[in-house]
Design a protein that fits this description.
Blueprint (H helix, E strand, L loop, with lengths): L1 E6 L2 E7 H10 L5 H5 L1 E3 L4 H28 L12 H18 L3 E3 L2
Helix pairs in contact: 3-4
Amino acid sequence: MLYKFKSKATGDLIMLEPNGRQILRIVGKDDTDSLAKGILLPADIPAALMALEAAIREDDERQQQRSREATAHNEESAHAERISLRQRAAPFIEVLKRCLKEDHELVWGV
């Protein structure tokens, strides 16, 4: 399954289902109905951006801790090749910023 995020402010953003679901849960759209289809209004976007930034910081800290532990044990970090939340969320964050700037909502599943 794919998520297709749409807005009048941007082109469509398509994400694989696990990644789209992760992003939606972070921004508080985690109930079954909201995961299937929903809307982020311009008024909701600042809170969504703050939630994403906080989750990205936490993910970065976890990755750094894993790397430090691997280095301490003279092991290669198994997570060095992992795509971070920062990388996965970057296009979504850009879409949200443009939606906020142009005062348009973001929808999915419709």
